[in-house]
Design goal:
5 helices; about 140 residues; elongated; about 45% helix; mainly alpha; single chain
Length: about 140
């Protein structure tokens, strides 16, 4: 994580300065949490309970509205992803079998599971003009 932060620091020195400042700023007046620690607590909950990005964005937006006007809570998933990348905490999508037989990216180019022969793609209800396929399960 430190190496990733150092890499971003070399590219943009203001990134590290901003992160260090966020460690000291309270999330809102009277808060026991800093902006960064409060943000990380919510990221932990998102991962622990498997909240979707849409659900998490809605939560952030509502928290931002409910807290005082001076709060520093990010109000969108885009803003939280920027912080995660700066901290070196990016995530990787893993394409999985719909029956959870395989969970490795070495099979990401296959159309069906080598274990259960289940399709990797969701069945399309209606044929759209685009031929893009949607993975049945992404972790």
């Amino acid at each position: 994580m430190v190496h990733n932060t150092h890499k971003y620091y070399n590219e943009d020195p203001n990134t590290l300065k901003t992160l260090l400042e966020d460690c000291e700023k309270p999330l809102y007046n009277g808060s026991k949490c800093s902006k960064l620690s409060g943000f990380m607590k919510f990221q932990y909950l998102k991962g622990k309970y498997g909240w979707s990005d849409t659900n998490f964005s809605d939560l952030l937006c509502n928290l931002h509205d409910v807290l005082s006007d001076e709060n520093l809570m990010p109000n969108s998933m885009y803003k939280t992803n920027k912080v995660m990348v700066a901290l070196g905490l990016e995530y990787e999508k893993i394409y999985a079998c719909q029956n959870d037989c395989i969970l490795r990216n070495e099979y990401k180019d296959l159309s069906e599971c080598p274990s259960c022969c289940g399709s990797r793609w969701k069945k399309q209800v209606c044929k759209s003009s685009s031929n893009s396929k949607v993975s049945s399960k992404v972790l």
